[in-house]
Amino acid sequence: MSIRSGVCEGLILLFFAGAWGFAAATDDPGPFVLGGLKARPGEVVSGYLDVPDTDGHGAKIPVTVIRGAAKGKVVAFVAGVHGYEYPPILALYRLKGMVDPSTLKGTILLVHIANPPSFRKRTIYYSPLDGKNLNRVFPGDPKGTISQRIAHVLTKEIIGASDVVVDMHCGDGNEALIPYTYWMTGPDKTLNETSRDLALAFGIPVIIIDDTRTQDPADSKYFGNTAILRGKAAITTEAGALGGTDEASVLMNLGGALNVLRHLGMVPGTPEPAPVAVWIDKYEVVESPQDGLFYPCVETGHYVVKGQKIGRVTDDLGTLGAEMTAPFSGIVLYILGTPPTVKGEPLFEVGRIKGDR
Q: pTM for this structure?
């Protein structure tokens, strides 16, 4: 072999090596970045999303990124928007240990406790730091109060990074609730159908068709609705009651999350949806007319008729203030399960079964 031919062969080898190196570089997807976390294919990384302290209050939101070895969708499961709602929180910690990233297609984002201030202080609805309901202040404000800043971080980091969002709730510490899912609809019909399929896949038989949410992206209020208005498929689930931690409720949340992953083709297996869906096409939350005590006379899940007495409200001295009745015929989706009432806060919710009039 001549020196010239050897040089040429060497150049050819160098060319192919360079080409292979270039191909490898372009095929490398790089790390999935969430806040300060970085997860490469096949990795599970946990840490915190930082909520800046601008008024004496900051927060650290615990999250996990499960990065699959293969490409696929990014789905976010979010628990603890209301800090006293425990079954979804406990379910996501279990899910973290069940998913094998080597067989996962896509990426799972787990928000374990979306509202740490409320979780730590065991408060229902409202943050102990600013008195705001986190699920009414989305998309948030980076210069606002702690709840508004948490909402901003969740909107930017979680919704911004996701293709699919599952906002997981249950009955708060005061709510006796039957399991149901909100299927939120908007102007995008294709997105509506994708979200409908998610609701069916999750597997809770009662599904509320919710077309009442605001369509203003700048004042979307609810986490799930915020995702919808940003072009992401989303559902809001409710499974569990009265701030409990019963195993059945935890398993319902865990099973629903796994069903969604199977439905999206991200983990092996097929979803196990509810055999029959009960569609609710109208719902109404009845609020307390005064502070005092509530005495229900029906139970959650009961079918009631329009005008039927649901309970009574008294003042703190026991004097009758009002008898509360059903606004229309339907199922009692939840009802106050503890005595204290506050003017303007929910007492119960009735849902009309689609087809009933």
A: 0.90
